[in-house]
Task: inverse folding
């Protein structure tokens, strides 16, 4: 909002407060099949870390409602702006906290900001194309940038577990 519409600090704060008022009372639907991926990842001993522009409060609520599990780590809007996606800080922190290397991670996202976060570290990124079917130009760019691309959550599930 600052770059595109030149919001002032007050306008940015007002936008955030309005968004929080909305998301507190509205639980978003999730993409079909993603709950199976998340649950199975956890059941099979894998980690689920969320890097989002949502707040921890909303992410924990939405995971509880839709999946009955909680992420192992959440890097959301609650972090200072300079540490949020696309800054690679969340991935660096995950690797340090869990003694992982870039080859051990897979970022799954539908936005270029995730690619900007993962690519400099050599972390593979999978384009979650199921959320961008109505945007063919964006989908094409992400398919070209990302290491992997999945049209459905079920496709991702087969890749991860079959």
Result:
């Amino acid at each position: 909002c600052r770059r595109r519409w030149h919001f002032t600090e007050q306008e940015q704060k007002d936008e955030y407060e309005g968004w929080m008022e909305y998301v507190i009372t509205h639980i978003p639907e999730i993409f079909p099949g993603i709950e199976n991926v998340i649950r199975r990842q956890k059941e099979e001993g894998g980690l689920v870390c969320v890097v989002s522009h949502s707040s921890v409060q909303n992410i924990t609520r939405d995971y509880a409602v839709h999946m009955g599990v909680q992420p192992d780590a959440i890097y959301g809007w609650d972090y200072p702006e300079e540490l949020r996606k696309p800054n690679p800080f969340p991935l660096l922190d995950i690797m340090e906290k869990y003694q992982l290397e870039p080859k051990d991670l897979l970022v799954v996202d539908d936005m270029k900001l995730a690619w900007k976060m993962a690519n400099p570290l050599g972390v593979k990124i999978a384009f979650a194309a199921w959320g961008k079917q109505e945007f063919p130009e964006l989908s094409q760019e992400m398919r070209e940038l990302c290491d992997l691309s999945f049209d459905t959550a079920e496709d991702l599930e087969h890749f991860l577990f079959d």
Notes: The first strand starts at residue 49 and ends at 51. The chain has a mean pLDDT of 93. The beta strands are 49-51, 73-75, 106-109, 124-128, 148-150. Residues 95 and 115 are 17 Å apart (CA to CA).
